[in-house]
Structures are given as structure tokens and as C-alpha cells.
Write a structure and sequence with these properties.
By secondary structure, the chain is α/β, with parallel strands linked by helices. The chain has one domain (5-271): Metallo-dependent phosphatases (Purple Acid Phosphatase, chain A, domain 2), CATH 3.60.21. The chain contains eight helices and ten strands. The chain has helices at 16-24, 44-57, 82-95, 135-145, 151-154, 163-179, 220-223, 255-261, and strands at 5-8, 33-36, 60-63, 107-108, 115-119, 186-190, 226-231, 238-242, 245-249, 268-271. Strand 6 (186-190), helix 7 (220-223) and strand 7 form a beta-alpha-beta unit. It starts with a strand and ends in a 5-residue tail after the last strand.
Length: 276
């Protein structure tokens, strides 16, 4: 098997220019796999369009949801909420032949492999904040500053009492699943949100870090046999290294962001790992 393991996220195909970008996204080899790390679309029909198009082109597509897929919006038929909505997203992806966090983890056998690719769905718990500040204080400060994620209005945690409880349930379930894997098999961990808080330290609005992950995953890249971590959400495309592990942010972002950079934000290569 040849090809490359590629990754992309934050496609936001409700924007016409991003939709055009996805139409241009193609493999360089018939053996290429594509990881899609969330925030494809707010509406399930748009998600199905994008994933279906990509699945027709790539040998395998692996998807995990971002916060935008989990939004319950007025413009979408039956307003599914919370875990019921998540399960519908999973079924939509499965019907298209796309791997999800609820499926057996696929194994990349191409260059840089063998590596188990583990798509994760973990959410956040507002723990990316200063140690001397409570969650309530941090949220109050965010509201006062006007820097508040739209999730507060549109991402419902049903049947969990709040997003923190949903996050902790997902972390515990996923941690058990990763711990049960062969410790000798290397992993690529894929999550929409960063698994460590360090990438959020460069945010223009530091208050937004509250909606960017959980400290409960801070040691996963060293606890497990991790070859690379793939994430999105921050719209800051770069690779940073922590404890010798590359963390790859693979966002496309909104048109105003990628046009300002003056580049074509295509998929990024995960394996083989490119040094530097």
C-alpha cells in the first residue's frame, strides 16, 4: 500500500468559497486516506454532501464531529439535540462508508505505518483557564468581554445535565477504549479540539480557550503510544511538538481567514511524518 495519510478540518461548507475548495480537494494517489477532524457543516444534509464527495475520491475517510455539527439550528427540519443528534451524525457518516468515533479504529498500513487511527469525540469542560480562577468566574469574564462561543446557545447536552458532564462521560469511555488497545501499536489520535491547552495560548482572545478542550487529556500523547495528534477548531494551521509528538492543526477556517493568508488550505500530510 502506498499513498499518504492526510487530514483536514473546519471545512465550513455553508460558505460558498469553502464549498468550492472542497470540490477541488483530491488525492494525489488512489491509496490516500483522508481524516476530517470536524466542523464540516451545521446541517446534516451539508455534512452528507461533503463526506459523500470526499468518500468517492479517497480510499478511506475518517471523520469526527466538531462543535458546529452538534448545533441545533432553526433551519433544519426535526431539531435533534445532544446525544441523539450525535448518533444521527454517526449514522449519516456510516451510510456513506465513512469511519466514525463509534466504529472499530482503522489501521493505516501505508508509508509511516502500521498505525491505528483513532477518531475521538470528547468535547470540553471549561478547564482551559488559569488555576486560580473558577469555572464560574472564567465564564463571567467571558460574557463580560463579549467573547462567548455560540455553543452556549446552540450545542445542547441532552440527556446530560450540562456539557461538562457530557465531556467527562466521553473522556472516560474513550480512555477505557484506548487503554484496551495493543500498547505496541502506534496511534494517530484525532479530535476536533486540541488534547493539550498549549495551542490555545496564542489565541487572540484567550477567553475562548474555555471552549477548546479539557485538561483530562493532557497526558494522553505520552500515556499512549502516539505517533501524531490531529486537531482543528482553532483555525491556526501549524504543527507544534510536545514531548516529541507532533500536534497538527489542520483547519481550513472561514474564507476571510484563508484568503488573508493567500494560500490554498488543502489537506495536510500526517504520515509519513514530516520533520520540522
Amino acid at each position: 500500500m502506498g499513498g499518504r495519510l492526510l487530514a483536514i478540518s473546519d471545512l465550513h461548507v455553508s460558505h460558498g468559497r469553502n464549498r468550492d475548495l472542497i470540490r477541488r480537494l483530491r488525492p494525489t494517489s488512489p491509496d490516500d486516506w483522508l481524516i476530517v477532524a470536524g466542523d464540516v457543516a451545521e446541517h446534516i444534509d451539508d455534512l452528507a454532501w461533503a463526506l459523500g464527495l470526499l468518500r468517492d475520491r479517497f480510499a478511506r475517510v475518517i471523520w469526527t464531529p466538531g462543535n458546529h455539527e452538534l448545533w441545533t439550528t432553526r433551519g433544519e427540519g426535526d431539531a435533534l439535540r445532544g446525544d441523539v443528534r450525535y448518533k444521527q451524525l454517526v449514522e449519516t457518516a456510516r451510510e456513506l462508508g465513512v469511519d466514525t468515533p463509534e466504529d472499530p479504529f482503522p489501521v493505516w498500513e501505508g508509508p509511516g505505518g502500521p498505525v491505528t487511527v483513532a477518531p475521538l469525540f470528547l468535547l470540553y469542560d471549561y478547564s482551559f483557564r488559569p488555576a486560580d480562577v473558577t469555572m464560574e468566574q472564567a465564564l463571567d469574564e467571558a460574557w463580560e468581554s463579549g467573547v462567548v462561543c455560540t455553543d452556549e446557545a446552540l450545542l445542547h447536552p441532552d440527556p446530560y445535565p450540562d456539557r461538562v458532564a457530557w465531556c467527562h462521560a466521553r473522556v472516560e469511555l474513550t480512555e477505557r477504549r484506548l487503554a484496551a488497545l495493543d500498547p505496541d501499536r502506534r496511534l494517530v489520535l484525532v479530535n476536533h479540539f486540541p488534547l493539550v491547552r498549549e495551542p490555545t495560548l496564542v489565541l487572540r482572545h484567550p477567553q475562548f480557550a474555555l471552549w477548546c478542550g479539557t485538561d483530562r487529556t493532557a497526558n494522553w500523547h505520552t500515556r499512549f503510544n502516539v505517533a501524531a495528534v490531529v486537531y482543528g477548531h482553532l483555525h491556526i494551521r501549524r504543527t507544534t511538538w510536545y514531548d516529541g509528538v507532533p500536534f497538527m492543526e489542520v483547519s481550513v477556517g472561514y474564507p476571510r481567514e484563508w484568503t488573508a493568508r493567500g494560500d490554498y488550505p488543502g489537506a495536510r500530510q500526517v504520515l509519513p511524518v514530516q520533520e520540522g
